[in-house]
Every structure is written in structure tokens, then in C-alpha cells.
Design a protein that fits this description.
CATH topology of the largest domain in chain A: Alkaline Phosphatase, subunit A
Largest sheet of chain A: 11 strands, mixed
Largest interface: A-B, 21 and 20 residues
Oligomer: homotrimer
Shape of chain A: globular
Number of helices of chain A: 15
Structural class of chain A: alpha/beta
Number of domains of chain A: 3
Number of strands of chain A: 15
CATH superfamily of the largest domain in chain A: Alkaline Phosphatase, subunit A
Low-confidence stretches of chain A: 7-28
Radius of gyration of chain A: 22 Å
CATH class of the largest domain in chain A: Alpha Beta
Chain lengths: 482, 482, 482
Amino acid sequence: MIKFNNILVSLLAAIILCAPVSYTHANDTQKPNILLIMADDLGYADVGFNGSKDIITPNIDDLANKGTSFSEAYVAHPFCGPSRAGLLTGRYPHKIGAQFNLPTRGSHLGVPTSEMFMSKFLQNNGYFTGAIGKWHLGDAPQYHPNQRGFDEYYGFLGGGHNYFPEQFAAAYKRQKEQGLSNIFEYITPLEHNGKEVTETEYITDALSREAVTFVNKAVSKTQPFFLYLAYNAPHVPLEAKQEDMDMFPNIKDKKRKTYAGMVYALDRGVGRVVDALKKNGQLDNTLIVFLSDNGGKLSQGANNDPLKAGKGSAQEGGFRVPMFFHWPNHVPSGQRFEHPVSSLDFYPTFAALAGAEVPADKQLDGKNMWEAFKANKNPHQDDLIFLLRHRGGYSDAAVRRNQYKALKIADKPWQLFDIDNDIEENHDISAQHPLILKDMVREMEKWSWDNQQPLWFHEHYEGAHWRLNAMPRFEQTFKTDQ
Amino acid sequence: MIKFNNILVSLLAAIILCAPVSYTHANDTQKPNILLIMADDLGYADVGFNGSKDIITPNIDDLANKGTSFSEAYVAHPFCGPSRAGLLTGRYPHKIGAQFNLPTRGSHLGVPTSEMFMSKFLQNNGYFTGAIGKWHLGDAPQYHPNQRGFDEYYGFLGGGHNYFPEQFAAAYKRQKEQGLSNIFEYITPLEHNGKEVTETEYITDALSREAVTFVNKAVSKTQPFFLYLAYNAPHVPLEAKQEDMDMFPNIKDKKRKTYAGMVYALDRGVGRVVDALKKNGQLDNTLIVFLSDNGGKLSQGANNDPLKAGKGSAQEGGFRVPMFFHWPNHVPSGQRFEHPVSSLDFYPTFAALAGAEVPADKQLDGKNMWEAFKANKNPHQDDLIFLLRHRGGYSDAAVRRNQYKALKIADKPWQLFDIDNDIEENHDISAQHPLILKDMVREMEKWSWDNQQPLWFHEHYEGAHWRLNAMPRFEQTFKTDQ
Amino acid sequence: MIKFNNILVSLLAAIILCAPVSYTHANDTQKPNILLIMADDLGYADVGFNGSKDIITPNIDDLANKGTSFSEAYVAHPFCGPSRAGLLTGRYPHKIGAQFNLPTRGSHLGVPTSEMFMSKFLQNNGYFTGAIGKWHLGDAPQYHPNQRGFDEYYGFLGGGHNYFPEQFAAAYKRQKEQGLSNIFEYITPLEHNGKEVTETEYITDALSREAVTFVNKAVSKTQPFFLYLAYNAPHVPLEAKQEDMDMFPNIKDKKRKTYAGMVYALDRGVGRVVDALKKNGQLDNTLIVFLSDNGGKLSQGANNDPLKAGKGSAQEGGFRVPMFFHWPNHVPSGQRFEHPVSSLDFYPTFAALAGAEVPADKQLDGKNMWEAFKANKNPHQDDLIFLLRHRGGYSDAAVRRNQYKALKIADKPWQLFDIDNDIEENHDISAQHPLILKDMVREMEKWSWDNQQPLWFHEHYEGAHWRLNAMPRFEQTFKTDQ
């Protein structure tokens, strides 16, 4: 992070070394701040920069337009917990037993500590680190954000939260007074570094406020910062401020209207954080990454047009997400990047931007996509990008390579799409390219062999189902006619 | 341990340091000896101090009456192997894969060496340690008592043993002569530190004799001692000396009479060990803990009145056991402690009495109950105490919190008892307190998530059953109507 | 390895020390070279030294006749991958999760790196090491021969290979040109230390050539060598040179004729390697071990007479293999060793010959059989030798002790054979020796308890089958009437 003292020291050092130095030069060699903003269940088509017709996101769009937006950004899983585990570990969740959301009613489990989080890696390499918002990666002490590499944490450890403190705090209080101890995580108090806090603001606004606080604190450090700002919006429960819903008089559907209000509040938060960066002179030195953890949930107000299906699906609507990069002078302005990238790429990419080397024993499933990105080339030429979602007794699967996407849904045979020219997955071309399809399926089968058994299930019945059906039943998943 | 040489050294040291010292003072600051006596399948009502009307246990009663007896002492499991694994590791057996007895016909398995036994911990902290009697925690070299922290071991490694050497030695000899190598562990020779011995006494008397030998040896050391005296009596086979049975002319039932004789021999042994302690001036410096590993087996002569059911059950008769503490000047005399305690508490409690700190990476599921015990307060106020017993395709479960006990048996719905006022579990109050019940069940469900798969089964068919039924099937175990 | 410089140094050292020294003396105290030649699916009766009437193996026979052949040599498993895993790790494959062949269509799996291979051990102890031919123990980087203790590797990593380069290279090229990436491993290019090579010779001749190259290279080193020469011949596909088939004009059966030609080519290769040893003056200093990885496959031209069944079976034809040792002045000449030995014995035996100590934490399931072998005594007196082969829903099993072999096939009851006098397993004597049978089965049951779950299956459907049937179902495998 560029701060006055740093510049002074740099200048002095330059003078001593009798070497000329300029601000720009110093800037180029310094580690950038990284601000990773993650929305929750945000639809592909629900931001202005992806063409939303009803929801407005002026602050997000401003950044996206001054940076580069991505048309083919994939996350590692089509729902929350595994997608986040993938993002922060740089690994397919299937490789670390994190294919399911953590148990609904709590557990002592979490993403294995043997997997060093991106945050820990950046912390080890001189970053001041913060996480704000939803965690969903383990609430036992050893899995707490502060133990996974975040100097600062403000938020809630579960998989979601109600939005209005005056309502959820009252419900929580009533249950406590009845002597109950196992209370639904959506209504428990928020925390700051492990200490319960009394939050009073609408949660999206509260998280934005804390992000501003973090930025202000970070600039007093001599370190660059990494901030993981994980909004729970617009995840259910659908709860928006009236004033935010009032921004959308033309939306009549109650759910859509509420959802729109929630996105609007999120957008306001992004604006506030950007203001804080500007005020502190850090915007030019900060890579801002914005994305959703998975596709929007169609039954809860989201819109993934033109993608098929939504959250949970192996079709594009499940795991192709809205995304942009913003970093003046480093990220092309006004560009649309139309090659596939994966959230698994962030770990090695951020590592490279931080000038730090990932330990040899830390496995990563993505790759540093920065050079290809800067050259507007496909970072994943001939690579395979996988999506595997276990269901009750079978699995849905997808594998992407170059223009092709192979897709397996339920008990239907594998299909093949030219996804570059058929984004809607309408035209199955498997009959035209049987060997290509078979080859891609075989590659995915090969990939599957070192998947781990799930370390947990969202509900116990899922575990029983898994075992009774001898899951993963990949002999069915990877069956082809050839 | 206070011995003449020790006192002399202490006195000399005191003189050199010009500081006054008294025996009592020295005693207070010294680590006590710990004598942990465990009976096998002894019924709650089968000791005088718990009100037995037919069996007499004069030596046990004398200690119990001069110490404190416990009305609500729980063990970690309602049968042998897991209960002992829990006691010595301080962990619920479910957390370490030890939910079943080791295989009947032998194996190379045992309680994972990654779990430091209480004995190893005390040995590391200066104790001279001994185990005498039944082991049942692994008979491969790495699981041998001498490898788990016991300086001395005398006994048999399996899950039980016949009692009359003249009989079992002959049977063993016959089988050896036929060239057989896999001989039922109840009739194989006993051992001393891994070397086979020729035992000639009735086993209960033999174990008492060895305990006396250990005590005599221990007093020659400058260390305190920890002795784990694990009688197999009155576990089947029901074999008593005639003279001991003759003590119970009024007992007509053959099984009960034999059982009574076995308990009487055990009581005689306790008396002998106490005599050895007295003779060596160690009684006042020794914490004696006496308990059973689980409830009595009703079909084999035991009596758990007023508790329901017996060995193997999640009802009180399965895992609430007779217990006392004796330690002059430290344990209240003539007291009945009427709060719940757990055998899982021993590890941290003994550690505290030994003035030693448990390593941070050693997980413990109980707590140091000493201060609460001394203050006659509930050491487990608001805590949860669990009992989980896997059966063929389902599990029985119990959870205790304060006055409440929630109980799940087979496919019956969860029940709730005010166990403080309804020790017989007669009055289900679940309808009156549905939220309390649900809350306790949810807590147990939460606890269950990091249970481990069993590392072994008593018989292979149990393993097949486990897998065929997709056990543990907790979605059934923790189902509530609410 | 004795080389001129070594001798010179030895002589000089001897002179300095004023001690007489002779070549023979030096030879006795030096580590021998070890040449381990493994044929693939070679039948018990398909070498001259075991009495083949139609196939001639002059070079192999010459060595066998000048050395010692074995009538009761067992491998650890009746098919390829597990047998090789057993050989190189010194462990029953069931103990390390390697009970199945690696997946047909590739995986990132391999024999756990926690098991130090024999090659790594010998390399650590000063050997120059090479592997040539079939690997089949993992093709991900961490499982590559060069990572498992082989300084040199030439061959193919999969479970087999086609033999004629002009054919398989063309097929490979066609598939590559179609843009396919997952190509059948039998037709992919061979490699040298991880680098693809263009092989032009018939594969058996190519492997022989590389073995000669290795020997020539090894003699330039000051180290002894260990060469693991793993021919894929005469494993399918049945592909022989016409000139080799022409050696067998009397064999009319097409498969047998081709098979015979393949064996003949293998024999020619053995001759070439021996010539290289002779030329370099190393034959007298080299222990040559020759064996097959499992029994011959009866449907593919092999002959295991007089043994019952073949590859894959728990009968003798499945895992009793042709074997000889050759080492002038160390291995008796012209002897037939008629006691059981196991390929699991190689690891500790080679370690002893190398004068090196196996690390305490390296478990081994065999034993050093050298002293007993030299004394022509049974190295496995009273020991148990196991064979366990999992099938679809059940397991076949065999256990050998002294003259007895207990056998369990499918759902038939256990049988007992006096295998010393009934090599054909014709006369079930279980009724005469029920206690012996039961005792052996109980020992095998005891052995089974610490078997590991398979880490992989040849095909996914096998894994599903395994789980759906709650395998291993040992309660059925070890059921006896008694």
C-alpha cells in the first residue's frame, strides 16, 4: 500500500542508491490491495453491466465499465458453502470433502485446516487481511476466520442471516429466555473477532459500514490489504428496506421487488467502500474483484438470462456468474473478457500479484490467469473446467473445454454444446462429435478418482442417502454409449 | 509420595533454606497417589453403599462411608471396551472410532495411539504407573499397556477371562497340543509386562495380590503412583469360590449367588489393597476412586435398582454406576454427591490434582470437576452429557442437561424425563416441554457430526450391518416432531 | 559392484592395513547387484525348468538349472497391480488399499507414498536403481518410478501395452489428430525418465535392449545396482513376431502359438541381459530373481499344470508362480527348493543382502528367508501365507500353513487340502481336521481386521458394487460350521 512514509522511504532509498524513481514506477512494483466483493445468489442478469433491464446498480456498473467485465466467469460449485470453500482454498470442493453445505443445525466441522486459505497465504506474505459478512466455512474455534488468516472479522459464521436487527434480535431474546441454547443461526447476534456485538443497522448497510471501517484502518498500516467482503444479500430471507424497494416502482412482483431492493442496498455499499478507497487515495492501487458465489435462485426473485436454470444447476445459470475486475492502469477499461475463467484462478493469480510464491505442498486446481487476461487470450486453452453437483442418488456434471461444454443431467444421456455459440444450451451436438464428447467425459472420469468422500452433509438424511445409494455412483455419471 | 527418604530430603532442604516445614504442609502440596478401581458389569444396587440388601461389601462400604459416594456418576458408554477407552482417553468413544468392543477373535487393532492415555500423561508428569487386570483396548504391541503409559502391567489383554486357573490352563493346554494357535482369549495365560506367567490363584484374588505388590513396590519410589486396578469381576463367566458363595446362604438363585460371591471376592481384594496402603502410610495420601465400567447385566445376576434396564442400555441402568471417592482430609467424609459427574471428567481432574497441564492438542470431552465437587455444586450446570449406543440399523441415545434427560429408544419417539425427580424414568414430560426436548436433541445432533466411523466391530457381521444400513442413520435418531 | 578401481582401492587398503585379501573375500563382503525379472501372466508350466513340453526357454532354463528353482513360490495377489504393489512395498496389498488394479481410464491415484518402495530403500542404501517396462502403480507425478526410488526408468506407466510400434504409434497419432486427449494407455508412447520416446522395436526386445543399456551404464558406477525388469510379456494383447512363432511349428492353437512366441522373445531378452552381465564381469556378483507376477491366464494361451485354475484365482494356479534364483557361489546350483516362499519376502531379504536395516516404521509382511533358504529349510514354518481376492459381493480366500491350505471359493464352504501331497487340490480333508481348518480360518479372520478400504477400483462400477454389498462382507468369508 502506498502511503506517505512508504513513499518517503522509497525516495530516500532511491536517493541513496543514486537511482531515479517515480511514483508510477514505485506503484508498479508494489503489492496491490485486493478487495474481493462477493454477492450471495446474485443472478447473472441482475446487474446493469450484464444488461439488467429492471434492477439498477449504478456503483457496480461504474466500476465494471471502468474495468473489465467477464462473460464466462465460473465458480467452483453451484451453491454457497462449496463455492466459497473452493474460492478460498483454490481447490475443487470435491478434492477436500467440502461438496455440501455445512450442517444446518450446526456442527464442530469445517473446511480442513490442512488447506491453507488464500487469506492465510496473503497474511503470511505481508497483507493486512479482513473478512466481513457471511462465513459458512466452519464455526468451531479452529475454523474461525481469525484462525484462517483474517486479522479482522465482522459478521456471522453461518450460512445466512436475517436483515433487520430489531426483528431478529427480539426473536433471539425470546428463545434465550426459554432456556434454549440451539438457536437458528440466521437470528443469532453478529460478532467482531469472536466477540458478540449488538448490531442495529440493516445488515447490508452494516457490512458496508464495517468495510469502510476496515479500509480506514488499513490505510494506517504499512501493509497492503486484502478484504473479503462477503455480503449475504440478496440471499433469502427476502428482506429489503422500504426506501430501497421504492426505487423500483415498475417491478410489480413482490419477490422481485424485494430482491431488487436488496441488490440496490448492496450496490450502495459498494459505492461507500469505493468512496472510502478514493478518500484514502487507494482506489488506483486496489484490485477490486466483484462476483456472485453462484447463480441466482429463480424462485427467489433472481434472473440469470440468457443462461439456463439457476443456483444448484450444472447448466450455465448455476455457476456462470456476473463478475468484473477494476484496477486503474492495470485492468483494461471498458473491456468485456470473453474467455472462460474460474474462481479457482484467484488464489494463484492473487499470489502472483502479491509477488509471493505458493508453498510447493499447497495444491491448487486453478491457474494464474493474469498474463492471459492482460493479453486478452484464453487462460484455459485446452484446459478442463469441471462442475459436479451431487444429488439424491446421482450427480449432475458438466465439463468445459474451449468452445465445448459436455453436460449430464439426472438420468439423461450426456449432451454436448458449442457453448461459445449456444450460450442457452439449446442445441445438443453430441451426435456430430461423439469422440470429442467421449474424450471430455473420460477426462472428467479421470479427474473424479481422487475426489474425497464428503466430510459432512447439509442434513443427516443426505448422508444416509449417500451411503444407501453407494454414492458417488460415478459408473452411472460417466457412462457413455461409446 | 511421602516416604521416609522424601521427608528427610524435604526436611534437609527446608533447613538449608531456613524455612519451616510441616508434614501436613508438605502433604498438601504434593501430588496424591491415585488408585482407580474399576469393577466389570457391577450393578448400581450391588454394593452396600448404594443400598444392596443381599450382597455385602464391607471394605468397599467402609471407604465409601469415609469418603463421598455419587448418586449420578455416568460412564461414557454402556458396555466394556468403549467405556474403558473413554475413561483412559478422556474422550467419548464415538470421537475416536472406539464405539464397539474389539473383535471377539482378535485383531491387530486398538485405541488409536494418537490419543494419549491418562496413564501416559501421568507417567510423563512424574507418576509411577501400573495397570492390573483386564485391558480390552488392543493387544498388538503398539497398544500394549506398557506402550500406553503403564510402567507395570499384570493381567490379560482381552475382554474377559475365566477365573479358575486349574480349569482354564488345562483347556488351553489341550488346544495347544492340537496345534491350534487361535485360542479363546478367556483361557489364555495371563502376563506380566508382556511375559506369559503361570497364574495359580482365583483371578480376582490374583489381581488383588498384584495390586498389593504394586503398592509395595511404589512406596520404594520417589514418585507418586497411579494404579488402574481393572477387575474383571463380576463379569461372566459366573465363577465364584465356594467359600465366597457360602457367605450368602439366603440367596437362592444360582446366578445371583455366584455373582454375589464374585463381588465379595472383589470386596476382599479392595480390603487387601487398602491394608497395603495403610501399612505403607499411604492411605491419607491416596485418592481412591471406585466405579463400575457400566451397569450390571440383569440376566447375569446383577441388580441396578431403582434404575431401569442394565448393561447396554441408554436408560439409567446402562450407564449410571456405583462410585465413590476416598481421600482423607480432601474428600468429604460421609457425603453423598447428588450432581451428575462423568468418567470423562477423570482425565482433566486427575491432571489438575497432579498439578500438570494437559497438552493443548489433547482434546478432552469432560472437565475438571474438583472445585465444584469440593463445593458440593453441580460441575455440569447447563452442560450436556451424552450416551449413544449403536444397535443393528439404529441407535439408542440419551442426553442429560441439569434436571432433564432426553431419551430415544429404538423406533420410539424421543421422551423427556425430570431425572432428578423421576430416577426410574417413568413419567415422560415431553409434551409439557417440547422446546426443551427439541433443543436438547438439536444439541446432541450438533455433537454427533464429528463422530468418527467405527474403527472396528465386535464381529464382522456388525460391520456389514452398519454399512448395509448406511449407519449411523442419525437422520432417524435425531428426528423430532417439531 | 566390483570394478577395477574398487579392487585397486581394496588392495591398497589391504596393503596399508597389512592384511591379506583375496578377490573372493572382497566379493563376499560386497553388496550384490540385484536383477529382478518379472514376467506378466506367465504360466507355472510355461518355462522349461518347470517342465514345459511345448514352449522352450533355453536362457531362462540355463539360469534356473545353474541356480535354484522354487516349486512353491507365491505372489501376494493373483493379478497384476496388487501383486506388484505387494512386491515393491513388502506389504499385502490389502494393508495399503491397493487390492484392485488402478482405474482403466487413468486417475491421479497410486500406491500411497507413505509406503517406501524397495527401490527407494535400496537407493537410500547406495544402490544404483533402474526400472524397465510396465509400471502400473500410479502415473501422477508423485507416483512416477523416478519418485519411488528408481534412478532410471524406461517403459510405460499403465497396466500393459501393445507390442508393435508401427501399429500402436499410428493408432495413437490418428486419435491425437482428432483432438482427443484421453487415449488408451496401451497405445501411448513409451517414456524415458518422464520424457516421451519414439520406440521402434518390438516391445519385448526394446525392454531387453534397455536392460542391457542399464547394465552397461551401471558398471561405470561405484555402486551396486538394482534393476527391476518388468516385461509386459506374455500379457495380452497376444502379439508375437512371426519368427518367434515359427519356433513352435508343432503348436497348432493360434493363441498358444502366439503366447509361445512371446515367451520365447522374453527368453531371448533374458539371454541378452545375462550376456551383458557376463561381458561386464558382473554375473557372479549378481543375484538374479525371475518370477511371474501371477498365474497364467488359461483363456489366453497359458498353462499352469498341474495347478488348478489361473490368474485371478485363490487356487494354486492363481498365485503360485514359476521362480528361480541365480547367484554363483551363493545360490545352490541345480537345486529345487520345495518350501513355500512369498514375493513379500524379497524386501527384507534384499535388505539383508544389501547389509541395510529397514527403518523401524516401515512395516513388512514377509520375512528375510535367506538363511532358511541356504539351509534348505522352510522359512515359513508355522507361518501363515494369505491370499484374498475380492469379487463382486464376496471374496475368495486362501491361507497356507505348513502342509495345509485352507480354501474358500465363492459361496462354497471352506475346504482343507494337504497341499504338499495334493498339489492339484483334489482331496478336501476338512472333515478329518475340522479344528485345524477352523484355527486357520480364525487366524485369517484376525489378519483381516486391519485391512484397508480399497483406495481405488478398476472401474467405478466395482466401487459401487463394493459399497452396495457392504463389502468386504468378511462375516461371510470367515464363516465356518464350527
